[in-house]
Amino acid sequence: MKFTANQIAEILEGEIVGNENVEVFKLSKIEEGEEGSLTFLSNPKYKNFIYATKASIAIVNKDFVPEKEITTTLIKVDDAYKAFSKLLEFYNQVKLNKQGIEQPTVISETAIIGKNLYLGAFSYIGNNVKIGDNVKIYPNVYIGDNVEIGSNTTIFAGGKIYSETIIGNNCSIHSGAIIGADGFGFAPNAEGHYSKIPQIGNVVIEDNVDIGAATTIDRATLGSTIIRKGVKLDNQIQVAHNVEIGINTVIAAQTGIAGSTKIGENCKIGGQVGIVGHITIGNNVQIQAQSGIARNIADNDVIQGTPAIGYSDFNKSYVYFKKLPQMAATLYSIEKEVKALKEEE
């Protein structure tokens, strides 16, 4: 896809300085700009690159005044960073704007399909599925029976949506995500073996949720596993049965959340965090990477460590952790001196 400076300026409501007909077909960092690429300058640290870049078009702030000659066509906007982000979003929409139903695919006769569905090859839509308008389902996606999917939602290649799952509007589910698999429920029997506990609940994903690649969200034993509005889940996260994650919480990769834990609103959880089951984490909590959470966490706490403690307490304690060998040597020396003094008595 090619765009002229004039077309880009119209999208961004910007002012062109240079050749309005110059074309670009790719994006680049300003220090790596090549002919035919579009870049941007917002951080003053990178200002010197604007004079050397070979990018055909650069988006800059309106208050930018060149100190020497520039060969690149400029598009001046109020906020270059926001404008470039807007352009990335527009580009992504154009790139992903697939339409139609490819073959081979399987669609149950009982499924209810909205307008403008894109369905990629080798995908399967089960019985009594309800799909809203402008939904995009990429190749090799499985949609089980009785699933509901809202409008403007995208499920990328290889996603697996088990039966009874409910997905809201404007969601993105990335490749390899598995939604609604059985929760990890087993009970020991008299013979010392484990018998499976039927998992008959479902998963509910509300509006504007983003679920990363290879993330798994288990169905509830009873009731629902719930992902509230605006939640953002990174790649390779495990969400167990009956977990609830509050509005606008963000969770980084490789975090594991055990069953029936409730996480509040607007939390920020770092990568590789382990959270035990049946606890409650309050609103606005921040959990640093690689922490282990084994207790309830109050609202607004910032915590770190395994087992996790207050973030400031952890940092103070770490000063001593680093000095433990030196402190041990000092203690051993004091013990020797005390022993020697006792022998002299």
UniProtKB/TrEMBL annotation:
Q: E.C. number, please?
A: 2.3.1.191
| One Pfam family it belongs to | LpxD
Question: Which residue windows are transmembrane per the record?
Answer: none
A molecular function (GO) held by this record is: UDP-3-O-[(3R)-3-hydroxyacyl]-glucosamine N-acyltransferase activity
What GO CC annotations are associated with the protein? membrane
Q: Which UniProt keywords apply?
A: Acyltransferase, Lipid A biosynthesis, Lipid biosynthesis, Lipid metabolism, Repeat, Transferase
Q: What GO biological process, any one, is recorded here?
A: lipid A biosynthetic process
Any idea where the UDP-3-O-[3-hydroxymyristoyl] glucosamine N-acyltransferase non-repeat region domain is? 21-89
Q: Which reaction does it catalyse?
A: a UDP-3-O-[(3R)-3-hydroxyacyl]-alpha-D-glucosamine + a (3R)-hydroxyacyl-[ACP] = a UDP-2-N,3-O-bis[(3R)-3-hydroxyacyl]-alpha-D-glucosamine + holo-[ACP] + H(+)
Where along the chain is the active site annotated? H241 (proton acceptor)
What pathway does this protein act in? Bacterial outer membrane biogenesis; LPS lipid A biosynthesis
Supply the PANTHER family for this chain: UDP-3-O-ACYLGLUCOSAMINE N-ACYLTRANSFERASE, UDP-3-O-ACYLGLUCOSAMINE N-ACYLTRANSFERASE 1, MITOCHONDRIAL-RELATED
Family statement drawn from the similarity comment of this UniProt entry:
Belongs to the transferase hexapeptide repeat family. LpxD subfamily.
Oligomeric and partner information: Homotrimer.
Q: What does this protein do?
A: Catalyzes the N-acylation of UDP-3-O-acylglucosamine using 3-hydroxyacyl-ACP as the acyl donor. Is involved in the biosynthesis of lipid A, a phosphorylated glycolipid that anchors the lipopolysaccharide to the outer membrane of the cell.
What name appears for this protein in its UniProt entry? Answer: UDP-3-O-acylglucosamine N-acyltransferase
Look up and give the organism this protein is from. Answer: Lutibacter maritimus
Q: Which gene encodes it?
A: lpxD
